[in-house]
Amino acid sequence: MLINNFLLLGAVLFCIGVYGVIARKNAVLVLMSIELILNSVNINLLAFDQLWGNVDGNTFALYIIAVAAGEVGVGLAMVLLIYRNRKTISLDELSEMKG
Amino acid sequence: MFAADEGSAVVQSAGWFLEHAWLIPVIPAIAFALIILIGKRMPMKGSEIGIVSMAASLVLAVGTTYQWIQRVGDAVGSQEGSALTRGVTGFARTLGEGGGEHAAVAPVIKSWTWWQSGGVEFGVGQHIDGLAVMMLLLVTFISLLVQIYSLEYVRGDRRYTHFFAAITLFSAGMLTMVLAENMVQLILGWEIMGVTSFLLIGHWWEERANSEAALKAFWTVRVGDVGLLVGTAIVFGSSGTFSIAGINEWAVGGEASKTVLLWASVALFIACIGKSGQFPLHTWLPDAMAGPTPVSSLLHSSTMVVAGVFLVARLYPLFHTGLDINLAGQHFNLIAVIGGITILIAAALAFVQADIKKVLAYSTVSQLGYMMMGLGVGAWVPVVFHIFTHAFFKCCLFLCAGSVAHTGSHHSFDMKNDMGGLRKRMPITFWTWMISTAALCGVPFFSGFFSKDEIIDAAKHNHYTTFFVVGLVGAFMTTAYMTRATYLTFFGKARGAAAGEHAHTDLHGEHDEAFDAHDAHGDVHGAHGEAGPDHHAKPAFGIAGESPMLLVAPLMILAFLALVAGYLNAAPFHIEKFHEWVGSAVGVEVPEAATFEWVNAIPSIVLVALGFVVSLWLSKEVFGEADSKLKGLTRRHRALGAGHTFLVKKYYLDDLYDGIVHAVGYPIAKAAYWFNQQVIDRIVDDVGVGGKRTGEWVYRNIDQRVVDGAVNGSGIAANSAGEALRPLQSGKVNQYGALLFGAAAVFALVLVIVNT
Amino acid sequence: MMLAATDIQIAQNIGFGIIAAVMIVAALKVVTSRNVVHAALALVVVMAGAAAQYLLLAAEFVAVAQVLVYVGAVMVLFLFGIMLTRAKLGKDTDLNNKNWGLGIPVALLMLGVMVWVLVDGFEDTKLAEPRPPVSTAAISDSIFTVYLLPFWALSFVLLAAVIGAIVLARKD
Known about the structure:
With 99 residues, chain A is an all-alpha fold. Chain A contains 3 helices and no strands.
C-alpha cells in the first residue's frame, strides 16, 4: 500500500476538523472537532511508524489518546460550568468583547 | 627706534616718579568715577575727592619734575656715550653737540598693549620728556588751584558734584594726552577734553544760550578733529607706527615722502586750528565763556586750548619737515600765517567787548596765535615757555574776573554797566589783575616779557620779518585792549551793580551763573546796604568788599608766579634753565636763538608803552565822566560806526558759518527726514504689514490645514486602523481558531515554498 | 481461506478505501450535522473507523486502546456533556456560527498545502509487505525506557485533569 493513502486520509480528516472548529457554535461540537483532529494525527503517526519500522509512533499515539481523554474531561467540565453560569454554551453568545 | 619697553634703551633706570608718571592721569580718572558714584553722599559733596586727587597728582608731578631735572643734569654731565643720550634721534644729539646746556636727554617711554586688531597693536603708555614734564606740572598745579577756587565760587550750585566730576575728568583727559606715548592715546585724551568742555560750558544748560554755546564749541572743534583723524591715518599709513617717538624719528629720517609729510602736517594742523581757536575756527572760544568762570580759567585759557599748540610742539619734527619751517629763504608757512592772522583779528575784536570774560577770551585767542606763529617761525622753546607763563597769568586774569563778578559786580560780567572803580574795594583782586596784565602785555621783568618777546625776537632772527611786524602790532593791541578793560573795571566811577544797584540784565544773556546763587539767597538781595553780605563767605583778610579767601588765595599764588616764573628762562640775565630742561624734547634741529640784546627789545617796549598811553587816553575820553567829543563817535561817524559794527559782529563770521550750515545742512536734514519718513518708515511699515499677512496666511493654510490636517489625519488613521483591526479581537473562539489555522497554513506554505 | 499475497494487497486497499470513505462521510457529518446527537454518533463512527485503520497499520494495541478509551469513554463523556448542557435534541438549525464561511477557505488552503506536500514527498513510498506487527512488548519497552519522562508527565496531566474536572464541575 502506498503510505500516501493513510497520510492523505489523515490530512482530509484534519481539515474537516479545522472546518468544524471554525464553523460550529456549540462548544461541545467544537471539542468534537478537535477530537477529529487528534485522530487524524494518530493515523499519521502510525503510518510513519510502519514506514520507518520503529514503535515511537505507537507510543506517541498512545500518549495522544491519553491526553485527549484528559483534555475532553476537563474541557467538558468547563463547558458544564459555563452552562451553569451562563445558561448557554453557544460560542457566539459567550463573547464579552464589545465589538 | 626708540625702545618702547620699560626703559630697556636706558641702561640707567629712571627714578620712581619718572617710571610711574603714568599714575598722574590715573588718579584723577579714578577720582572721577568715585565722585560720580559716591560724591553726592560725601560731606563736601565730592569736591574733596577732586581736590585730594589733584593734590596727589601734583605731588607726583613735582616728583617727576624733580627727577627729570636730575636726569637732565646727569645727561649734561656725561654727554658723549651717556646711556641717557643713547637712542636719541640724530638731530637732537647734534643739538647736544652744539651747546653744552642743550644736552639730548632720552625720554622715559613705557607702553602697554591695550588691544590688537588685524596685526596692529594699540597701546597706552607714557612718553616723558621735558615737554611732558612741564605740561604735567602745569596742568596739575592749575587744576588744583582752580578746584580750590571752585569750592567757593560754585558753592550751592545745582550740580555741584557733577561740576567737580567733570573738572576732574577733564584733568585726567588732559594729563593722558600730555604724556601720551602714541597718537591713539593722544586722541583719547583730546576727545575726553572735548567732551568735558562740552559738559562744563553747558553746565547751566537750562538757559538756551548756554547749551547752544556748548554745542557750538563741540561742533567747531569737531570739524577740526576730522583733520586729527585723517592726519593720524596718513602718518600711520606711511610710517607704520602710532608711537610719538616713532613718528618723530620717521619724520626726520629722510625716508618719508615730502608730500606725505606736508599733507599730514596740514591735516593735523587743522585739528589744532579747531582746538586752539585759530582763525577761522576761533568762533567757539568767546561763546565758551557761557560756562562758569573756573571752567573758563582752566579749560579755555591755560590748559585745554593749548592742546593744539602742544600737538604741534609734540610732533614738531613732522611739522618742521613737512612745512619746511626754517628752510632757507622761506618767509611764510601755513602755521605762521594762521597764527599771525589770529593774533590780529582776535586783538581787534577785544576792543569792542563789554563783557570782561569775552575780552579775556579774545586775548586768549590772540596769545594762542602768538604761540602758533612762534612755532611757525621755529621758536620752539620760547613758545613752550610762553605756554608755561601764559597759563599762570591768563588763569589769574580769569579768576580775577570771577572774583570781581562774585563780590564786586553782583555776578555780572558787564564792564560797561556793572563795574567801575573797584580798585579801592577789592585791592587784592586789583593788584593781582595788574600784575597779570603786565605779564600779558610783556612789560619788562614780568614773565610775559621773557616769553612773548622771545617769540617776536625769533621771528626776526629766523628771517620771518612779516611776522615780526605782526607780533609787534599785536603787542600794541594787547596793551591797548587790556588797558581799556582795566579802566572799565577798576577805575572810574562805580556803575550799576558795582554801585550797589541790582545788576542790569547782561548784554549777551549768557551769564546766568548766579541763577542758583540768586535763588538760594534771593531774599537777602533786597537790601544791599545792610551790614555785610552774609550770604557770601567772609572776605579775605577782613577787607570788606574783597572776595573770600578761597577765591583770593589762588589769585595771589598765580600772580606771584606770573611775576617770577619768567625768570626760569630770562635771556637778559643769561638764565636758560627752562631751555636746558625742556629743550631736548624738540626732536628736530631749530635755529639757535639770538643772544639777547636790549636794543632788540626796544621796539616792543616802546609799542607797549604807546599802547598803554593811547588806550588810557581813549578810555578816559570815551568812558570817563567828562564830556568828550569822542563819546558816541561811532554812532555819529558812519564809517567808524560801520567798522565798529563789523567788529561787534565778529567780522560776520558767525553769520557766515550759520549761513553755510543753514544753506547746506538744512536741505540735507530735510531730505534725510523725508527719506526717513517716506522711504524707511514705509519700508518698515510694509515689512510689518507683510509679516502680519504672511503670518495670517501661514496660520490659515499651513497651520490649520497642513499641520492640523497631519495631526488630525494621524489620529484618524490610528482610529481607522484600530477600527479595522478591532474585529480581530472579537472574543469569538471560532474566529481565533480560524486565524490560528489560517496563519499556520500560510506559514506552512511559505516554508514549503522556501524549501523547494 | 488462503488468499494470494497480492490478494491481501488488493483486499487491504479495498478495505482501506471503504473504511476511509465511511470515515470521511462521518467526519463531514460531525461538522455539518444539524443534530448534536447525530454529530456525536458520527464521531463514534469516525473513531471506530480509525481503530480499523490502526489495525490495517498493524498497530493492534493502539487500536484496542482507541476503542476502549475513545469510543468507550470519551464519546460517552461527550454524550453526557450534550445531555447536561441541555442541547436541543432533534433538529437544531442554529449550530453554525456567523462566520462559518470563513472555515471553508482556511480548510481548503490547509488541505491544498498538505496534499501538495504529501504528494510531492511521498509519491511512491510503499509500506512494507507483509506488515510487521507492532508488539506490545516493544511498545511497553518504549514507554518505560525511552519515553519514561513523557509517561510521568502524562500521569501528572491525567491526575490534574481528574482533579480539575471534579473541582470544576462540582456543585457548591
